[in-house]
Amino acid sequence: MSRISVRGFAVASATAVTTVGAVVGVAAGQPASVGNAEAAAADATIADIPAGAQAQVQTASLTQQADDQSTQADAAALKSAQEAARKAAAETAQSKKDAADEAKAKKDAEARKKKELAASRSDARDDLGDLVGKSSYSIADTQAIARQMVAGDQFQCFSNIVDHESGWNYQATNASSGAYGLVQALPGSKMASAGSDWQTNPATQIKWGLNYMNDRYGSPCGAWSFWQANNWY
């Protein structure tokens, strides 16, 4: 059986040390003093201690072990809490950084989109400059103008309506109703809201037609869906 340091037990329980020291001193034939008891007990084994005192020694040992384990557990818990707090702070900082990066990327993308759209509109105006201002327009001219003015994903729907309404003849007139132009506005003078040259300029008629389809049906494709169901729009 291993030796037990009574001096170590004194840290946990002064009472137990005093008792054990006294017992050891008596067993050695020396006066029972605390100092001598501690010195003698340093080299004593559990077998050297009378049975009645062993329980006190063991209790002191268990108490000291429990205290040590509690201290270690508290230190481990504190370390764990500190690590968890550090990790949470790092995750929060990373989340904020990711959100800021995402917001910046979105803002940059929107800025690029606006810039590209502005450039596209500028190019479209330049192209239209070469197409408008003529004394007359062929179907190819009129369709080229429309392609510059109508969004790519809406052009086919717009074209389908114009095909059925006027066959791309910007001077088409309905003798019975008086509807006029590419989109057969009724009356044709409605298109004056888009320009005073509504009778002779297909670009003005296209502009008015787009506004009408967007306002009433949401888009040219919305207008085309209605036209297919009703044969008018």
Automatic annotation (TrEMBL):
Pfam families: SLT (PF01464)
Low complexity biased stretches: 61-79
Keywords for this protein: Signal
Listed SUPFAM superfamilies: Lysozyme-like
Residue intervals of the Transglycosylase SLT domain: 157-222
Cited InterPro entries: Lysozyme-like_dom_sf, Transglycosylase_SLT_dom_1
Leader sequence residues: 1-22
Sequence segments annotated as region (Disordered): 60-79, 87-124
Superkingdom of the organism of origin: Bacteria
Identification of the protein by name: Transglycosylase SLT domain-containing protein
Organism: Streptomyces sirii
